[in-house]
Amino acid sequence: MLMYTVCKFPADEEFDEVCFEFGIELDDVTTEKAIIRKEKHINEEVEDDEEIIYKIEIPANRYDLLCLEGLARALRIFKCIEPVPEFQVSKVPPASMIKIQVKPKTSMIRPFVVCAVLRGVALDQARYNSFIDLQDKLHQNLCRRRTLVAIGTHDLDTLEGPFTYEALPPSEIKFVPLKETKEFTAEDLMEKYKADLKLKKFLHILEGSPVHPVIFDSKRRVLSWPPIINGAHSAITLDTRNIFIECTATDLTKAKIVLNTMVTMFSEYCTNKFEVEPVEVISANGLSAVYPDLTCRKMEVSLSYISSALGVTLGVSEVTGLLNRMQLPATKGDNIEGSDPTISVQVPPTRSDVLHPCDVMEDVGIGYGFNNIKQTTPKCVTQGRLLPLNEFSDSLRAEVAMAGFTEVVTWILGSFEENFDMVKRNSEKQKAVVVGNPRTSEFEVVRTSLLPGMLKTLGHNKDHPRPVKLFELSDVVILDPKKDVGARNERHLTALYCNANSGFEVIHGLVDRIMQVVGVKAVSVGDNTGYFIQPSEEPVFFPGRQANIICKGSQIGTFGIVHPEVLQNFLIPDPCSILEINIESLH
Amino acid sequence: MPTNNFVESSFWNFDTLFQPQQHPARDSHDTFFLKVPEVTQSLPENYLEHVKTIHEVGGHESIGYGYDWKREEAEKNLLRTHTTAVSSRMLYALAQGKFSPKKYFSIDRVFRNEAVDRTHLAEFHQIEGLICDRGLTLGDLMGVLNEFFQRLGMKKLRFKPAYNPYTEPSMEIFSYFDMFNKWVEVGNSGMIRPEVLRPMGMPKDVSVIAWGLSLERPTMILYGIDNIRDLFGHKVDLKMIESNPICRLGRQV
Question: Which of A133, A355, A386, A567 suits A37 as a labelling partner, its CA being 20 to 30 A distant?
């Protein structure tokens, strides 16, 4: 979720409409004062001079739209107001290029670093806020809360290269961190920041490591202690003119995407617009690489592929025009005479989301307008049918409903207490699938029986006129070493009768009716050609008032009068009878 | 599709669907990971190698994601976050034999480890549809969606570009509701990415168009229910269930 003040947009366009066409969501239109009012629950008059804020949600794979600069630019290009920028790396002779030397021990904790410089930027409060905001957003999503990548930005004029990226014991890292005035060691800060609401979340990344990452300049001044915090010395202010950006990481691919995102978004404020100054990174083994890598990736995409996937007939120039609007500079492809025409796409560094020709094809579709594509129907003829178990389930549901029972659908997740303790089935716990990260006890365990859910529903409908006749036909889950995942679903049916009397004969009658509609004969005890009932001893039922259903030699279910203690646990004031059958054995 | 398996491995739920392992949706705060059984017992080894490769370095004209794919992540069991996990299994099975066009659907329960409120549940139902054939187009997808939603009583649709890790193009489906005087999102759809289909062995010229929607949301809109717990769960309003008229959705003139 993002909030912006969009001020560079033509006033005569319906902003909502453009967002829809482009594929971003305009969630809310509000003002900063309205947000504060809402938070404080105040009902005040709206003032006319309040600046409008658009709350926009963007797709998760578009890092180039995460800040106002990128989003506004993308929309202006989409509406043909401005061309696609060409990002350049400034030509700096290798000898005068800023350098950073990586020391070997960094491989123990955070192996990678990439850097770049933005020269001659002009910052004001809004741009500064946007700059910090983008770092926060990248840290939050792509960087996976700084575990994969951490961004540090510095005022280059307060520093002197060459820089070094090292890993030292925390007691040997001493500096004045941002927002402080005195020096601390990294060791002190690990302790101090345990009380800091924002920073304590990142301490685990370094916890227990013998060395911590740290970046120094040539005068041994600390730029940053990644991923926790930067040094105060090189903090960026509104007067900063030259910015040094460093991204330390455990994932090099993502570090490059993060660096490219930072520089492509903010190089529009450099003296040479869209130009970024390179930095040479010399790794521990002596190999060097120059960042940022802003080269475009060339992709040849077949025109017929695009047309046939979308279902529209398009010419080369039409496609290149549409792609240019989508920030994918495209030209006629160099193809051999006589073969299918292709489109040459130069995928810019802002479009790390383009992985395959299908991504190009989608952008052509967006440019054309999905809603402009002619709607057709697939030509294939196929035979449809229901899954036999599902068909059987639906038929059985109808039969039980026709017997006067109302269907309910209850939760599959529940607490240990409800599923086992309250129904006196503690021994069943070992058959159950257990959740590793439940938010509350409500989500602890996956049900192995429909009984608790049914009793819980009855407990919450105490005022319903008697008799209450409910049923549920749904899945439970049982551990099963024979399945690839280690558990299987099992389709059960449960039915409940509750009245001033327990209604045991009603439930028994339902059992007989179910077996009748399923086509299984009632037989005498011991006969395996049909079904019979046999007394059971389950603690959830009243002793002597319960039975197992044996069908063709196996026990497929149980029914009985619910034990008064169980009724009490579920706050049910009236007697009731309940059945539960594994219908997969009947199917 | 046989969706009677709530317990799923991260492999089928995420990895085969080209959802990268460092993706926020795989965070413990969105997904119910399991303590018992914690890891899946078996995975198709040959196919696993293809999935690993497509994530790490790409292939089949894709550049992949460029990260180190870990088997241990794929082995983590969870309660499925979407029925698309089953669709993935079905597409894989289809790709093992000689190809013929297929249409699949499912309606079943999914689980999301999210904060619960009057419109959001930890468990809800998804409806899913897929069509597999040679030469399917985005135009075909929109045509099918129009037919499908008409039968739910929604006649006016608009499509918006969106993002899913496993579809490209992706479209959110919006329907106009006279009663609210606005467009409301009713579903999600797209063409399954080659990075999902090709490692399975699906022929290059086969496309799969797919769509999904939740069962609860359209039900609430069409029946005028503002609290989903009146319909679903133990706090159900029994009177409402007993007095509700027969369903005539999509059949009204």
Answer: A133
